[in-house]
Amino acid sequence: MGLRSRIHIINDFIKKPDDIPLQISLWQKLKFLVSGILYDFGIAFLLIIFISFLAPLTEEYENILNQELYSFWMTIVFVTILPPLLEELIFRFPLKYKRNYLMRLIAYLFKVDLETFWKKHLRIIVYLFSAAFGFVHISNYSNVDFFFFVLSPILVGAQLFAGIIFSFFRLKLGYIWAILGHFSHNFILIMMGILFYHNVFMTLVDDEKVKIEAAGLTYLVDEAPRLTFETTSEGNLLCLEAQNFSLQKVVNALYEEQDSLIIRDNERLHLKLISKQDSGYSKTKFLETLKEHYVFKKVVDSTSNKE
Predict the structure, then answer these.
(1) pTM to 2 decimals?
(2) Where do the TM regions start and end (predicted)?
């Protein structure tokens, strides 16, 4: 059985979920796990592309997960291990009626046949549990409004689809496979962030006037935060180096008089600027560069509404 056949079986489950386990070997289950994760990330990638086109509508919504950094191993624990254990226990473990002890207790106390009801409506139940799993990730965002909830099915679309994939693992392969799938999903995300983002310098500007480089951090590094910069008598930047430093604090240090410059995702990063001219590089130009690569919050001046 190839990848296409396994994806076809997963799609059949998505169309009409059932709890009949696949009678396959451990090796075949492992192949389904890999296929499901690949399918999951393929859909997530398409959603990321789609959401990128909606950036003007979504850029003000801040993901609070970006506000806190942990050590590497604490990141693994808090992102890769603990959430799958808790979320799979809540959203996938009860999908099998024999393991849904709450429903069985209710059925016992009220002398009703809930097992028949559960199996008859399993399709809707799987969709509801998957939707609940997806939409609970709305809590990752702050400063939400009505329009945010309109866009929320798109913003958490990857989690909605992942919920269906994990439900397939749980009902067709077994509960432990749902946990392993969730572990794998989160671990891959962490590793991708580390490999392609953590301490990887990206050139923001490199022309005849200045060279500016920046590298984000996905976890805390054992390095004291440091910011140094030199300016000309006119206030232009000759050089700047920030190591393990908050981008917001960089902005605050350079533009003390502008309280409205608030970074949406207050990233901790390494930042380097070297002016190639003796006259230095304008702070205004530097701010424009930062705004091209980082999202600043829209701050409303409360005094503007006063008469």
Answers:
(1) 0.88
(2) 37-58, 70-91, 124-140, 146-169, 176-197
